[in-house]
Amino acid sequence: MSWIYLVIAGLLEIVWAYFMKQSEGFTRLMPTVITIVAMIASFGLLAAAMRTLPLGTSYTIWTGIGAVGSFIVGIIFLGEQFSLIRVLAVLLIIAGLIVLKLTSDH
What we know:
Number of strands: 0
Radius of gyration: 15 Å
Helix content: over 70%
Structural class: mainly alpha
Shape: flat
Number of domains: 1
């Protein structure tokens, strides 16, 4: 169950990062509210996952999901730059996440 909590927490990190961008520095109400709610839910699920998963694994997977997901969302929905070097960097992050998962005792 901890891994499920962790994945959902990571997905919520993508949500709050996107809506933080949409809030325009917390000047728009609804994106700001969504950001705060998603942050609280994401942190809560991360904390629940950390009850049984190691800190290093939990935090790295959480931030990795958020980083990779935000990268993809930025390209698809915000028109951010797509380049081979940026894709290579994201693939390295994904490779690191896979190695962490495979070497975790949980």
